[in-house]
Design a protein that fits this description.
6-stranded mixed sheet, Nuclear Transport Factor 2, Chain: A, 343 residues, 12 strands, Glutaredoxin
């Protein structure tokens, strides 16, 4: 995204739930108002019910900052997507998970609506159930943990579920843990619950936040004083100073912050670095500090500079290396920290 003369890279100023496009627009396309029941076992979705369902569903998933119409994500202080919404168990979701663990494409297919056809929204565009079934069966799920953000029924016969899945995948030679954000709309068809629509992110190696409500960059903080304080601590404790330029609206800044709290990464970060978060606002704050450390705002945020305990610049991010933190793996972050930690 380009905002004025500043390029913010892969994240959007007004909300970005990893690679999710707008659900408000996406689900309106998926369920046009002329969808009607084709059998007594297939519920009709009339326009009034559809619009109400979409509006609530969009509040949960579509944005992580100020998305139009999304109260939990509006303004300067986005709230958790679960605030004010009831979360309850949904048995069909667990049954779907069992089918994924089996790896049996036929069992997985049974959970997707055929009439009307299930619709799938991806970053690359809209697809059908075959694409989704191929994705999940091809992932070769060996272990799966589902963290449900919200599971609730807007009305009888419909269930919306938003979750993040932590998956041990055997799709590669060496099994890897990947994270997937998913939003599903389930419809009861006769006695069977089936997925009528789904929207998910691509697998990522780092855990993706579902909102940007955490205040990483505290407004009004004197960044130069913070750096000076960190340098004093670094001198006493034989550490380096990691200066992280970013903003609270920046999705990838939250991805990187969450990565810093992983046990494997924290084991290197805490003993060897003092971390200072420097708020860049909308590209109009602390630009003098970015320039001092030769970190170009035009290459996006989050951006990193590494200082030794004397304040000497050891590393300056000039190629947007962390700007799309969402595509990095934990090994990438660890390699960087191990490279620049003190001997």
């Amino acid at each position: 995204m380009v905002s004025g003369k500043f390029h913010y890279g892969g994240h959007r100023k007004h909300g970005d739930i990893s690679e999710f496009p707008s659900l408000l627009a996406g689900f309106r396309r998926l369920f046009p108002s002329d969808v009607v029941a084709t059998s007594p076992k297939c519920r009709a979705l009339n326009s009034t019910r559809l619009i109400r369902m979409i509006a609530v569903f969009a509040l949960i998933v579509s944005g992580t900052a100020a998305v139009a119409g999304a109260q939990w994500a509006a303004g300067q202080a986005p709230q958790s997507p679960t605030k004010g919404l009831q979360t309850s168990p949904f048995t069909p979701l667990e049954q779907w998970k069992v089918a994924l663990l089996s790896g049996d494409a036929a069992k997985i297919r049974a959970f997707y609506s055929a009439h009307p056809p299930a619709r799938v929204v991806l970053a690359s565009g809209e697809a059908g159930a075959d694409t989704e079934i191929a994705f999940w069966s091809g992932l070769k799920v060996r272990r799966m943990k589902i963290d449900v953000v919200q599971s609730a029924s807007p009305e009888p016969g419909l269930q919306r579920v938003v979750f993040q899945a932590e998956v041990l995948s055997a799709a590669q030679t060496k099994p890897q843990t990947v994270y997937i954000n998913d939003a599903q709309l389930w419809q009861k068809q006769g006695e069977q619950w089936r997925i009528a629509a789904t929207q998910r992110s691509s697998p990522s190696r780092l855990q993706q936040p579902l909102d940007t409500s955490k205040e990483i960059y505290v407004p009004g903080i004197n960044a130069r004083a913070e750096i000076t304080y960190a340098l004093n601590l670094a001198t006493q404790q034989h550490k380096r100073v990691l200066v992280v330029f970013g903003a609270n609206w920046c999705y990838d800044c939250h991805v990187l912050d969450r990565a810093f709290h992983r046990p494997d990464i924290e084991a290197v970060l805490k003993p060897y670095y003092e971390v200072v978060h420097v708020d860049v606002g909308q590209g109009d704050k602390n630009q003098d500090i970015m320039q001092q450390y030769h970190v170009p705002m035009a290459k996006g945020i989050p951006a990193i500079a590494v200082l030794d305990s004397n304040g000497t610049l050891l590393y300056a991010q000039q190629g947007g290396e962390f700007e799309k933190a969402r595509v990095l793996g934990p090994e990438d972050v660890l390699a960087f920290l191990n490279k620049w930690k003190p001997a």
